[in-house]
Specification:
Strand content: 25-35%
Largest sheet: 6 strands, mixed
Oligomer: single chain
Number of strands: 17
CATH superfamily of the largest domain: FAD/NAD(P)-binding domain
Order of helices and strands: EHEEEEHEEEEEEHEEEHHEEEH
CATH topology of the largest domain: FAD/NAD(P)-binding domain
């Protein structure tokens, strides 16, 4: 790839890092195709919807510490997909109407392919081919590939493609998180006054109307989640609801909805320690919060840093 001009870029992953990188490349005139194994954008800025109810069961909000990230969120706020939470010591934003929609303006006019799990990257004389699990190849070849998925998944993709890991990547660690999703048909004030528990890292309660229903998302800490990582989701849901009931100051009725979701790679507990990875000889870049650390803001800054590297190439 040394000395070649990068026109077409495949971006694997439609979370914060991938979409920020894709948007910056597309705005600079590059032809970008985004692939994601799920059915929509967001990654860990995720929302589940059922029968008119919704839960932000990934990140309930994004924290802002840098001017660059603040500028992006303010631009998204002007476009109606984000809103700042008032009265916060550290600026926080949420998506409108939910966290998944926060990134929606970034995909306008982008070519996004959902339900497309990428199996391997195959080199050719004309560039990289992106092979899907259906043994299909994306048309045509790409001059560069951005891998913007959690570090263990990125490492597995590189290994399947016969590519070496970048220096330091084998030391990256990501911790899990089990989340509990509940719904009650009417308001439950006690859910906003929970006591302390080693099984609760944070909880978010949303009233979806003046008289209910109320949805609640509970995030379990990394250590609690890791010790139950391979347990059945229904069993974890019951265990977490028992904890929720025990620390709630009011009696909780049986929920109208109860489920648990496992984030196997929720956050970088041991990040790479650099903003992104760009391998110019291969034309492959890696980005995500696991590069610099810092959750959604780290993912944003990583995606932007990688886009700059590609444009400079």
């Amino acid at each position: 790839m040394v000395g070649s001009v990068i026109h077409r870029v495949a971006v694997i992953g439609a979370g914060m890092a991938g979409l920020v990188c894709a948007r910056q490349l597309a705005d600079a005139g590059r032809r970008v195709v985004v692939f994601d194994k799920s059915g929509d954008i967001g990654g860990r800025l995720a929302t589940r919807r059922r029968d008119g109810l919704w839960w932000n069961h990934g990140a309930p909000a994004v924290h802002v510490r840098s001017r660059e990230f603040l500028a992006l969120l303010e631009s998204l706020e002007r476009r109606g997909s984000a809103t700042a939470i008032p009265g916060e010591a550290v600026a926080r934003f949420v998506g409108r109407p939910d966290m998944r929609e926060l990134l929606r303006p970034l995909v306008e006019d982008l070519d996004c392919r959902f339900g497309c799990p990428v199996a391997l990257l195959a080199p050719g004389s004309d560039g990289w081919r992106v092979a899907l699990h259906q043994d299909e190849a994306a048309e045509p070849a790409f001059d560069a590939v951005v891998v913007a998925i959690p570090a263990p998944q990125a490492a597995a993709l590189l290994a399947a493609s016969g590519l070496p890991l970048p220096d330091g990547m084998e030391a990256v660690r990501m911790s899990p998180c089990w989340t509990l999703l509940t719904a009650h048909g009417d308001r439950q004030p006690g859910l906003r006054q929970l006591g302390q528990s080693e099984a609760i890292e944070r909880s978010t309660v949303t009233d979806l109307g003046p008289d209910g229903p109320t949805t609640c998302v509970l995030h379990a800490p990394a250590a609690w989640s890791a010790s139950r990582l391979e347990q059945d989701a229904d069993a974890v849901a019951l265990a977490l609801y028992a904890v929720l009931s025990a620390v709630c100051p009011a009696d909780l009725p049986a929920p109208d909805y109860l489920a648990a979701h496992r984030w196997r790679y929720a956050r970088a507990s041991a990040p790479l320690g650099q903003d992104c990875v760009w391998l110019p000889d291969l034309g492959i870049g890696l980005a995500g919060d696991w590069c610099p650390g810092g959750d959604a803001e780290g993912a944003c800054l990583s995606g932007r840093a990688l886009a700059r590297r590609i444009l400079q190439a």
